[in-house]
User: Fold Phosphoglycolate phosphatase from Paenibacillus uliginis N3/975.
Amino acid sequence: MNHKFKLLALDMDGTLLQDDHEVSPETVKWIKEAVRQGVHVCLSTGRAFSNAYPYAQQLELTTPMITVNGSEVWRAPYDLYRRSLLDVELVRKMHALAVETGSWFWAYTVDQMYNRDNWAGDIDTKEWLKFGYHMDDDDVRHNILMRLQEMDGLEITNSSPSNFEINPKGINKAEGIKQVCQLLGLDISQAVAVGDSLNDLAAIQQAGLGVAMGNAQQTLKDEADVVVASNNDDGIVEVIRDYILCGE
Assistant:
């Protein structure tokens, strides 16, 4: 069948995954049907490759993957296409800001994840992909955002209303999807992007069809072409059934 949309780029947490971090059997069934009908299904996540790949295995996906919000694009599992690193000096500044404000923080290097309880001894010797903050206090969060915006070279998004995720400037899931499209010989107008948080916003704005989950942050719903059911109610099934395999 000749479908209008050839690529389905799926955020994981809050989108593909239910709140129990499982993919529902119904969603698995529909993803496999989409693949059977020639649609490329691509995981597009803030997670590191090692935390995302088990789900690709479960879904039997061999297509490209976008990890760490686009800091890494994989041609296929374990076959790295492109990696974008944070400036070490910016990581040092972000770490100092996290300590000063007493925030919970974490960061990914190409090898592992560090956090407040287990911080990297030597920032300089590591290759950094992403830095994150979590804080429940709105005033502290606003202060951190203002300070981050003063630092050049950062792409600031979130994966929940109480956190920030920071990648190198210009690196986001939309850029990741464009690169995957290039690898597959597609145009981004042939892509469907689905998500629930601000790290999905650029992708949802730029894809041929931008889909917000029912549980998505309001900004995302406002910008999306379509809003579907929540991550716990098989919203992804709706996307595949009603917008991709609908026989257009």
Observations:
- The longest strand covers residues 128-134.
